Amino acid sequence: MNSSLMLRRFCCFNTSSSSSSLNSCSKKKPLVFLGSPQVSTTVLDALFNASTAPDSLFQVAAIVTQPPSRRDRGKKVMPSPVAQYALNRGFSSDLIFTPEKAGEDMFLSNLKALQPELCITAAYGNILPRKFLNIPPLGTVNIHPSLLPLYRGAAPVQRALQDGVKETGVSLAFTVRALDAGPVIACERLEVDDQIKAPDLLEFLFSKGSELLIHELPSILDGSAKVKAKPQDDSKATLAPKITPEESWLYFDKEALVLHNKVRAFAGWPGTRAKVVVIDNKNGHHNILELKIITTRVCSHNNVQGIEVDDITFVKDALAFPCAGCTTLEVLEVQLPGKKVISAAAFWNGLRGQKMKKL
Protein backbone atom coordinates (compact mmCIF):
# COMPACT_ATOMS: atom_id res chain seq x y z
CA MET A 1 0.00 0.00 0.00
CA ASN A 2 1.43 3.41 -0.99
CA SER A 3 1.95 6.04 1.70
CA SER A 4 -0.73 8.20 0.05
CA LEU A 5 -3.36 6.30 -1.88
CA MET A 6 -5.02 7.95 -4.87
CA LEU A 7 -8.79 8.11 -5.10
CA ARG A 8 -10.01 6.08 -8.04
CA ARG A 9 -13.70 5.71 -7.44
CA PHE A 10 -16.35 6.83 -5.01
CA CYS A 11 -18.50 4.19 -3.38
CA CYS A 12 -19.95 3.56 0.05
CA PHE A 13 -19.32 0.74 2.43
CA ASN A 14 -21.73 -2.13 2.19
CA THR A 15 -21.11 -5.85 2.38
CA SER A 16 -23.46 -6.35 -0.56
CA SER A 17 -22.77 -4.62 -3.85
CA SER A 18 -26.21 -4.67 -5.48
CA SER A 19 -27.35 -1.68 -7.51
CA SER A 20 -30.27 -1.13 -5.13
CA SER A 21 -27.90 -0.79 -2.19
CA LEU A 22 -25.79 1.72 -4.13
CA ASN A 23 -28.91 3.76 -4.91
CA SER A 24 -29.80 3.67 -1.23
CA CYS A 25 -26.30 4.80 -0.30
CA SER A 26 -26.44 7.75 -2.69
CA LYS A 27 -29.13 9.37 -0.50
CA LYS A 28 -26.99 9.16 2.62
CA LYS A 29 -24.56 11.76 3.86
CA PRO A 30 -20.91 10.84 3.20
CA LEU A 31 -18.82 10.54 6.36
CA VAL A 32 -15.03 10.16 6.59
CA PHE A 33 -13.48 8.28 9.50
CA LEU A 34 -9.96 8.99 10.80
CA GLY A 35 -8.26 6.56 13.18
CA SER A 36 -5.19 4.36 13.43
CA PRO A 37 -4.60 2.03 16.44
CA GLN A 38 -6.52 -1.08 17.46
CA VAL A 39 -8.84 0.81 19.83
CA SER A 40 -10.07 2.89 16.88
CA THR A 41 -11.46 -0.21 15.18
CA THR A 42 -14.20 -0.33 17.82
CA VAL A 43 -15.47 3.03 16.57
CA LEU A 44 -15.11 2.07 12.91
CA ASP A 45 -17.00 -1.17 13.54
CA ALA A 46 -19.86 0.75 15.13
CA LEU A 47 -19.99 3.14 12.16
CA PHE A 48 -19.92 0.30 9.63
CA ASN A 49 -22.75 -1.49 11.42
CA ALA A 50 -24.86 1.66 11.82
CA SER A 51 -24.32 2.70 8.20
CA THR A 52 -25.83 -0.54 6.90
CA ALA A 53 -29.05 -0.17 8.90
CA PRO A 54 -32.14 0.46 6.72
CA ASP A 55 -32.79 3.85 8.32
CA SER A 56 -29.15 4.98 8.33
CA LEU A 57 -28.54 8.64 7.57
CA PHE A 58 -24.89 8.26 6.54
CA GLN A 59 -22.35 6.18 4.66
CA VAL A 60 -18.66 5.64 5.38
CA ALA A 61 -17.21 7.25 2.27
CA ALA A 62 -13.51 6.98 3.12
CA ILE A 63 -11.03 6.16 5.85
CA VAL A 64 -7.91 8.12 6.77
CA THR A 65 -5.22 6.42 8.81
CA GLN A 66 -1.49 6.37 9.52
CA PRO A 67 0.81 5.05 6.77
CA PRO A 68 1.96 1.41 6.86
CA SER A 69 4.78 0.85 9.34
CA ARG A 70 7.17 -1.87 10.40
CA ARG A 71 5.72 -4.23 12.99
CA ASP A 72 6.40 -7.77 14.16
CA ARG A 73 9.85 -6.66 15.39
CA GLY A 74 10.46 -4.70 12.22
CA LYS A 75 10.22 -7.68 9.90
CA LYS A 76 7.12 -6.64 8.01
CA VAL A 77 5.65 -3.39 6.73
CA MET A 78 1.99 -3.63 7.66
CA PRO A 79 -1.06 -1.37 7.38
CA SER A 80 -2.40 0.28 10.51
CA PRO A 81 -4.88 -1.76 12.56
CA VAL A 82 -7.70 0.45 11.27
CA ALA A 83 -6.67 -0.07 7.63
CA GLN A 84 -6.36 -3.82 8.14
CA TYR A 85 -9.74 -4.00 9.84
CA ALA A 86 -11.39 -2.05 7.03
CA LEU A 87 -9.85 -4.31 4.40
CA ASN A 88 -11.03 -7.37 6.32
CA ARG A 89 -14.54 -5.94 6.25
CA GLY A 90 -14.37 -5.60 2.49
CA PHE A 91 -13.83 -1.84 2.35
CA SER A 92 -12.20 -0.62 -0.88
CA SER A 93 -8.45 -0.05 -0.58
CA ASP A 94 -8.89 2.85 -3.02
CA LEU A 95 -10.78 4.71 -0.31
CA ILE A 96 -8.24 4.20 2.47
CA PHE A 97 -5.96 7.23 2.58
CA THR A 98 -2.61 7.16 4.38
CA PRO A 99 -0.99 10.59 4.14
CA GLU A 100 2.16 11.29 6.11
CA LYS A 101 0.54 14.58 7.12
CA ALA A 102 -3.09 15.62 6.94
CA GLY A 103 -2.12 18.86 5.18
CA GLU A 104 -0.76 17.23 2.01
CA ASP A 105 -2.23 18.91 -1.09
CA MET A 106 -2.94 15.66 -2.94
CA PHE A 107 -4.70 14.20 0.09
CA LEU A 108 -6.81 17.31 0.64
CA SER A 109 -7.74 17.36 -3.05
CA ASN A 110 -8.92 13.74 -2.86
CA LEU A 111 -10.82 14.45 0.34
CA LYS A 112 -12.62 17.42 -1.21
CA ALA A 113 -13.62 15.25 -4.18
CA LEU A 114 -15.58 13.05 -1.79
CA GLN A 115 -17.55 16.05 -0.54
CA PRO A 116 -17.82 14.66 2.99
CA GLU A 117 -20.51 16.17 5.18
CA LEU A 118 -18.78 15.11 8.40
CA CYS A 119 -15.47 13.72 9.65
CA ILE A 120 -15.09 11.56 12.76
CA THR A 121 -11.73 11.11 14.49
CA ALA A 122 -10.72 8.50 17.06
CA ALA A 123 -7.00 8.35 17.93
CA TYR A 124 -5.95 9.28 14.40
CA GLY A 125 -2.52 10.52 15.46
CA ASN A 126 -1.98 13.47 13.13
CA ILE A 127 -2.65 17.17 13.63
CA LEU A 128 -5.51 18.40 11.44
CA PRO A 129 -4.76 21.76 9.78
CA ARG A 130 -7.34 24.45 9.15
CA LYS A 131 -7.44 23.50 5.45
CA PHE A 132 -8.71 20.08 6.50
CA LEU A 133 -11.18 21.36 9.09
CA ASN A 134 -12.75 23.71 6.53
CA ILE A 135 -13.80 20.85 4.22
CA PRO A 136 -16.74 19.07 5.97
CA PRO A 137 -19.69 21.48 6.39
CA LEU A 138 -20.92 19.69 9.53
CA GLY A 139 -17.45 19.82 11.05
CA THR A 140 -15.10 17.24 12.52
CA VAL A 141 -16.06 15.41 15.72
CA ASN A 142 -13.49 13.73 17.95
CA ILE A 143 -13.90 10.94 20.49
CA HIS A 144 -11.61 11.94 23.35
CA PRO A 145 -11.07 9.53 26.29
CA SER A 146 -11.35 12.06 29.11
CA LEU A 147 -13.88 14.44 30.62
CA LEU A 148 -12.91 17.58 28.74
CA PRO A 149 -11.50 20.09 29.51
CA LEU A 150 -9.52 17.70 31.73
CA TYR A 151 -6.55 15.89 30.18
CA ARG A 152 -6.27 17.55 26.81
CA GLY A 153 -3.47 16.04 24.76
CA ALA A 154 -1.88 12.84 23.51
CA ALA A 155 -2.08 10.64 26.62
CA PRO A 156 -5.30 11.39 28.54
CA VAL A 157 -5.90 7.87 29.87
CA GLN A 158 -2.30 7.33 30.95
CA ARG A 159 -2.00 10.69 32.69
CA ALA A 160 -5.35 10.27 34.44
CA LEU A 161 -4.30 6.89 35.84
CA GLN A 162 -0.91 8.28 36.80
CA ASP A 163 -2.73 10.94 38.81
CA GLY A 164 -4.83 8.24 40.51
CA VAL A 165 -8.20 9.65 39.45
CA LYS A 166 -11.34 7.98 40.81
CA GLU A 167 -13.50 9.14 37.91
CA THR A 168 -12.93 9.66 34.21
CA GLY A 169 -14.99 9.39 31.05
CA VAL A 170 -15.22 9.99 27.33
CA SER A 171 -16.20 13.15 25.46
CA LEU A 172 -17.57 13.91 22.00
CA ALA A 173 -16.25 17.31 20.93
CA PHE A 174 -15.99 19.34 17.77
CA THR A 175 -12.39 19.69 16.59
CA VAL A 176 -10.89 23.18 16.45
CA ARG A 177 -7.32 24.27 15.81
CA ALA A 178 -6.56 24.56 19.55
CA LEU A 179 -5.68 21.23 21.18
CA ASP A 180 -8.85 19.31 22.25
CA ALA A 181 -10.53 22.64 22.98
CA GLY A 182 -13.69 22.45 20.87
CA PRO A 183 -17.30 22.58 22.14
CA VAL A 184 -18.43 19.36 23.83
CA ILE A 185 -21.48 17.63 22.36
CA ALA A 186 -21.84 14.96 25.06
CA CYS A 187 -19.83 13.02 27.61
CA GLU A 188 -20.17 9.92 29.73
CA ARG A 189 -18.65 9.48 33.19
CA LEU A 190 -17.44 6.31 34.87
CA GLU A 191 -15.69 5.27 38.04
CA VAL A 192 -12.11 4.04 37.80
CA ASP A 193 -11.13 0.77 39.46
CA ASP A 194 -7.86 1.08 41.37
CA GLN A 195 -6.35 -1.95 39.60
CA ILE A 196 -7.32 -1.25 35.97
CA LYS A 197 -4.46 -0.62 33.54
CA ALA A 198 -4.28 1.91 30.72
CA PRO A 199 -4.82 -0.48 27.75
CA ASP A 200 -7.98 -1.92 29.32
CA LEU A 201 -9.36 1.47 30.32
CA LEU A 202 -8.58 2.91 26.89
CA GLU A 203 -10.42 0.06 25.17
CA PHE A 204 -13.41 0.47 27.48
CA LEU A 205 -13.58 4.23 26.95
CA PHE A 206 -13.50 3.92 23.16
CA SER A 207 -16.22 1.28 23.37
CA LYS A 208 -18.36 3.69 25.38
CA GLY A 209 -17.34 6.50 23.04
CA SER A 210 -18.54 4.58 19.99
CA GLU A 211 -21.94 4.03 21.64
CA LEU A 212 -22.13 7.71 22.52
CA LEU A 213 -21.23 8.66 18.95
CA ILE A 214 -23.92 6.48 17.37
CA HIS A 215 -26.47 7.91 19.83
CA GLU A 216 -25.51 11.50 18.99
CA LEU A 217 -25.01 11.09 15.22
CA PRO A 218 -28.59 12.10 14.27
CA SER A 219 -28.17 15.47 16.03
CA ILE A 220 -24.70 15.91 14.53
CA LEU A 221 -25.99 15.17 11.03
CA ASP A 222 -29.01 17.50 11.28
CA GLY A 223 -26.84 20.31 12.66
CA SER A 224 -28.55 20.60 16.04
CA ALA A 225 -25.46 19.31 17.87
CA LYS A 226 -23.62 22.52 16.99
CA VAL A 227 -26.35 24.48 18.76
CA LYS A 228 -26.40 22.36 21.92
CA ALA A 229 -22.63 21.80 22.19
CA LYS A 230 -21.16 23.55 25.24
CA PRO A 231 -17.94 25.57 25.10
CA GLN A 232 -15.18 24.29 27.37
CA ASP A 233 -14.05 26.26 30.39
CA ASP A 234 -10.41 26.82 29.51
CA SER A 235 -9.63 27.88 33.08
CA LYS A 236 -10.29 24.28 34.19
CA ALA A 237 -8.20 22.66 31.45
CA THR A 238 -5.40 20.25 32.31
CA LEU A 239 -2.85 18.78 29.91
CA ALA A 240 -1.92 15.17 29.14
CA PRO A 241 1.44 15.36 27.36
CA LYS A 242 2.86 12.47 25.38
CA ILE A 243 4.67 9.84 27.45
CA THR A 244 8.38 9.32 26.85
CA PRO A 245 10.45 6.15 27.43
CA GLU A 246 12.61 8.04 29.92
CA GLU A 247 9.62 8.25 32.26
CA SER A 248 9.36 4.48 32.61
CA TRP A 249 11.81 4.13 35.53
CA LEU A 250 10.45 3.53 39.04
CA TYR A 251 12.20 5.18 41.97
CA PHE A 252 11.32 3.92 45.43
CA ASP A 253 11.84 7.24 47.17
CA LYS A 254 8.18 7.85 46.31
CA GLU A 255 5.17 6.40 48.10
CA ALA A 256 3.81 3.03 46.98
CA LEU A 257 0.52 4.45 45.69
CA VAL A 258 2.35 6.85 43.35
CA LEU A 259 4.39 3.97 41.90
CA HIS A 260 1.35 1.67 41.63
CA ASN A 261 -0.53 4.32 39.66
CA LYS A 262 2.46 4.76 37.36
CA VAL A 263 2.63 1.00 36.68
CA ARG A 264 -1.07 1.03 35.72
CA ALA A 265 -0.69 4.15 33.60
CA PHE A 266 2.37 3.01 31.66
CA ALA A 267 1.21 -0.60 31.12
CA GLY A 268 1.58 -1.73 27.52
CA TRP A 269 3.93 1.06 26.39
CA PRO A 270 6.49 2.09 27.55
CA GLY A 271 5.99 -0.08 30.64
CA THR A 272 7.72 0.54 33.97
CA ARG A 273 11.21 -0.62 34.92
CA ALA A 274 13.31 -0.90 38.05
CA LYS A 275 16.90 -1.93 38.75
CA VAL A 276 17.62 -4.36 41.58
CA VAL A 277 20.77 -5.94 42.98
CA VAL A 278 20.89 -9.70 43.47
CA ILE A 279 23.51 -10.77 46.04
CA ASP A 280 24.97 -14.28 46.11
CA ASN A 281 25.16 -15.25 49.79
CA LYS A 282 28.02 -17.68 49.18
CA ASN A 283 30.57 -15.42 47.47
CA GLY A 284 29.03 -11.97 47.95
CA HIS A 285 28.86 -11.38 44.18
CA HIS A 286 26.52 -8.53 43.14
CA ASN A 287 24.49 -8.81 39.94
CA ILE A 288 22.36 -5.89 38.71
CA LEU A 289 19.07 -6.87 37.06
CA GLU A 290 16.66 -4.70 35.12
CA LEU A 291 13.09 -5.77 35.83
CA LYS A 292 10.01 -4.73 33.94
CA ILE A 293 7.29 -4.29 36.56
CA ILE A 294 4.03 -5.63 35.14
CA THR A 295 1.42 -5.81 37.91
CA THR A 296 1.42 -4.29 41.38
CA ARG A 297 -0.76 -3.46 44.35
CA VAL A 298 -0.32 -1.28 47.40
CA CYS A 299 0.27 -3.20 50.64
CA SER A 300 -2.83 -2.55 52.71
CA HIS A 301 -1.35 -3.23 56.16
CA ASN A 302 2.12 -1.67 55.77
CA ASN A 303 3.63 -3.97 58.32
CA VAL A 304 6.47 -5.72 56.51
CA GLN A 305 8.68 -6.30 59.52
CA GLY A 306 12.32 -7.02 60.21
CA ILE A 307 13.90 -5.91 56.96
CA GLU A 308 16.40 -3.21 56.07
CA VAL A 309 15.23 -0.20 54.14
CA ASP A 310 16.65 -1.50 50.83
CA ASP A 311 15.76 -5.18 51.24
CA ILE A 312 13.25 -6.71 48.85
CA THR A 313 11.39 -9.63 50.39
CA PHE A 314 8.75 -12.12 49.29
CA VAL A 315 5.45 -12.02 51.19
CA LYS A 316 2.70 -14.46 50.25
CA ASP A 317 2.44 -13.93 46.45
CA ALA A 318 4.38 -10.71 45.99
CA LEU A 319 7.80 -9.09 46.01
CA ALA A 320 7.65 -6.41 48.72
CA PHE A 321 9.49 -3.18 47.83
CA PRO A 322 9.82 -0.70 50.74
CA CYS A 323 8.86 2.81 49.60
CA ALA A 324 8.71 6.32 51.02
CA GLY A 325 6.39 7.14 53.89
CA CYS A 326 6.68 3.63 55.39
CA THR A 327 4.61 2.26 52.50
CA THR A 328 5.19 -0.96 50.57
CA LEU A 329 4.66 -1.74 46.90
CA GLU A 330 3.75 -5.36 46.23
CA VAL A 331 4.91 -6.56 42.82
CA LEU A 332 2.87 -9.48 41.49
CA GLU A 333 4.33 -9.95 37.99
CA VAL A 334 7.71 -9.13 36.45
CA GLN A 335 9.56 -9.60 33.19
CA LEU A 336 13.29 -9.94 32.54
CA PRO A 337 14.67 -8.54 29.25
CA GLY A 338 13.87 -10.90 26.39
CA LYS A 339 11.83 -13.21 28.63
CA LYS A 340 8.16 -13.88 29.23
CA VAL A 341 6.11 -12.33 32.01
CA ILE A 342 6.28 -14.47 35.16
CA SER A 343 4.73 -14.36 38.60
CA ALA A 344 6.60 -12.91 41.54
CA ALA A 345 6.66 -16.39 43.09
CA ALA A 346 8.34 -17.90 40.02
CA PHE A 347 10.91 -15.12 39.96
CA TRP A 348 11.64 -15.49 43.70
CA ASN A 349 12.05 -19.24 43.38
CA GLY A 350 14.55 -18.66 40.58
CA LEU A 351 16.78 -16.68 42.92
CA ARG A 352 17.49 -19.88 44.90
CA GLY A 353 17.96 -18.13 48.21
CA GLN A 354 19.94 -15.13 46.96
CA LYS A 355 19.15 -11.77 48.54
CA MET A 356 17.68 -8.89 46.56
CA LYS A 357 17.98 -5.16 47.25
CA LYS A 358 16.74 -1.97 45.63
CA LEU A 359 19.37 -0.12 43.65
Automatic annotation (TrEMBL):
One of its GO terms (molecular function) is methionyl-tRNA formyltransferase activity. Residues 242-351 form the Formyl transferase C-terminal domain. Transmembrane segments: none annotated. It is an enzyme of class 2 (transferase). Its EC number is 2.1.2.9. The keyword Endoplasmic reticulum does not apply. Keywords: Protein biosynthesis, Transferase. InterPro entries: Fmt, Formyl_trans_C, Formyl_trans_C_sf, Formyl_transf_N, Formyl_transf_N_sf, Formyl_transferase-like_C_sf, Met-tRNA-FMT_C, Met-tRNA-FMT_N. Residues 41-203 form the Formyl transferase N-terminal domain. The keyword Ligase does not apply. GO terms for cellular component: mitochondrion. It comes from the Eukaryota. It holds the Pfam family Formyl_trans_N. Belongs to the Fmt family. HAMAP family: Formyl_trans. This is Methionyl-tRNA formyltransferase, mitochondrial. It comes from Castanea mollissima (Chinese chestnut).
